[in-house]
Amino acid sequence: MDAEAARPREIARSGAADVAIEWADGHHSVYPARTLRLACPCAECQDELTRRQLVDAAMVPEDVRPLGIDLVGSYAISVRWSDGHATGIYAFRSLREECPCEPCRKALGATIRARRSR
Amino acid sequence: MTRSIDPVADQPDEARVREALRAVVDPDLRKDIVSLGFVKDVRIEDGRVAATIELTTPACPVRDELRGQAERAIRALPGVTAADVRMTAVVPSAPSVTSLIPGVRNVVAIASGKGGVGKSTLSANIAAALALAGARVGLMDADVYGPSIPAMMGARETPADLGDRLQPVVRHGVKIISMGFFLKEGQAVVWRGPMLHKMVQEFLGDVDWHELDYLLVDLPPGTGDIQLSLCQTIPLTGALVVSTPQDVAVDVARKAIAMFDKLNVPVLGLVENMSAYVCPHCGEHDDIFGAGGARRAAERLQLPYLGAVPLASAVRERSDEGTPIVIADPTAPAALAFTRVAELLAAQVSVRRLALAGTAPIAVTF
To answer: Could you tell me if residue A3 is inside a domain?
Structure first.
């Protein structure tokens, strides 16, 4: 991934509580609040070795939303969530890789299939 | 400003002087000094031209060449009898330096993959060399496990507390903070990650650094908690990676480079330390750790190579005495090599700044 693709130009609110990122290469991503919370990459929510999500979806309120977003160095953001959780550091590169928009999903699927068939 | 309004065609005027100076190109920034906005003041009086060139670092490695070129370019103009170019420097600030250290313009981490490659010696000498060139320099010793900066800089006093703000110790023109100031001799730090994270934040936010052109951070070896904390707490201008020449050391240095890449911290360059050993008795060279490993790695990874520093006992002796060799014996081969590294590093910081000049900081409006 080139540097432009993994550098946000703007991080803003989309709708009531979703997170929108406009990337330096012009791409636009919208991350639904609850999906982002359940994908929290902190050691409490994700197994450090297998990357399996450990967070119990039943424990996360349906209407969970970010209360604030802070930059972490020059490579990530951290999110303060309404359920009190705040330890996740979301790297720009992973956010871009996991952009939920349709074309990105398709491209990622193709990459994974290509990797498997090799 | 006096401006020539002489109607005679072959008299120099400011426009012609500026036009002539377009021929002077900064080799690092790859632009002419007029486009870069370096030409600040042009005065002309009876064919005598005086100009001021404002560089982006006082430690510019090509300062004298640029000055010579500029004077020659002006002298070549018709009607010019004398040219006098004055060199100054203002280090530009990062576009989005954190509010944690508002007066600090650039933060550069000095890192290595493995220990024992002379990272602290290099940090102390680069800091002293930049200060000697006229820059405002801070040196944060983040090597909690083996803080050696106080000894190398001859700084043994405890930093004063002003309210709840720590005052850095000033030695050889460098503002210094180190865990070594707070430990008794022989005392060791056995800390877990969260404590280290807190220390990094305090060394940045609770220290009165005031205005600094460069804050150098001497990291412990490796790719661990301190490195991560530093990269998470502030946006670094970049990192300098040090290695000794042999392949195993270079291989580990590449891990440090991979870490910075992951954390979006640009690597400003590679330095080869403990390069050839020069025997003080017979003058013979011996490549104890091999030669050229860092240069080859830099070429392969397409990173700037900032030079090699020879292995010389004088470097260690001066450090033990508490005065970096760039100050104690500035014309020694190792001192000249350290100074060159410092200048090339300053140039790379300027290159980085220029590259960032067009990019706005990330706007968070959530």
So the answer is: no
